[in-house]
Design brief:
The structure holds two protein chains of two kinds. By secondary structure, chain A is mainly β. Chain A contains no helices and eleven strands. The N and C termini of chain A lie far apart (about 35 Å). Classes of the chains: A mainly beta, B mainly beta.
């Protein structure tokens, strides 16, 4: 199995300030079709996961542009340029280049 | 709009079976695969398996072989997850999510509680 390791696991964030979550993979995630299937989800309390970013850096329609994704190979990052109160929740990275696996999750809370 | 609507919560005894449904609408069912994901209480997300909605061919994660059965009924655009011989640690929320690699749309989740 491909292991995804997120850090930090807990992220106290200040409204208006940037925040960043790292996701490291135990194997490369570049598929034979040239695409990298690394996805970021947000799970707000009591809700289903919501896709934010797919194929490393493509933002889902309707997702605020303060969310961005980057990375390649085995290291990926989700950035929030200016945290807002509504961003509270758990963020997961997931790879589906191989059989799908998820990171452990990063809990973002407001300071 | 695309919707995945799952069946309601279930309370079952150990050894029983449960069947969870995921009814889809707003798109052509057979154009997208369907994944199932488990979230144990207070835990993260775990991919259980997926099903090719065209052929009905399922794929299971290693930890979910033997007691977990995925199926589809294309006539009603619905996917199913059946768990047999339930154990206490099967307790959790089970989600369906569209797409073989996409996971772009999710159901609301079905809580399955296994308790004597």
């Amino acid at each position: 199995d491909v292991v995804l390791t997120q850090s930090p696991l807990s992220l106290p964030a200040t409204p208006g300030q940037p925040a960043s979550i790292s996701c490291r993979s135990s194997q490369g995630l570049l598929y034979s079709d040239g695409k990298t299937y690394l996805t970021w989800f947000q799970q707000r309390p009591g809700q289903s996961p919501r896709r934010l970013i797919y194929q490393v850096a493509t933002r889902e329609s309707g997702v605020p542009d303060r969310f961005s994704g980057s990375g390649s190979g085995t290291h990926f990052t989700l950035n929030i340029s200016r945290v807002e109160a509504e961003d509270v929740g758990i963020y997961y990275c997931m790879q589906s280049t191989h059989w799908p696996t998820f990171g452990q999750g990063t809990k973002l809370e407001i300071k | 709009q695309v919707q995945l609507v799952q069946s309601g919560s279930e309370l079952k005894k150990p050894g029983a079976s449960v069947k969870v449904s995921c009814k889809t609408s707003g798109y052509t069912f057979t154009n997208h695969g369907l994944n199932w994901v488990r979230q144990a209480p207070g835990q993260g997300l775990e991919w259980l398996g997926s099903i090719n909605t065209n052929t009905g061919n399922p794929t299971y994660a290693p930890a979910f072989t033997g007691r977990f059965v995925l199926s589809v009924d294309t006539s009603v655009s619905t996917a199913y997850l059946e768990i047999i011989r339930l154990k206490a640690d099967d307790t959790g929320v089970y989600y369906c999510a569209r797409g073989s690699t996409n996971f772009d749309k999710w159901g609301q989740g079905t809580l399955v509680t296994v308790s004597s």
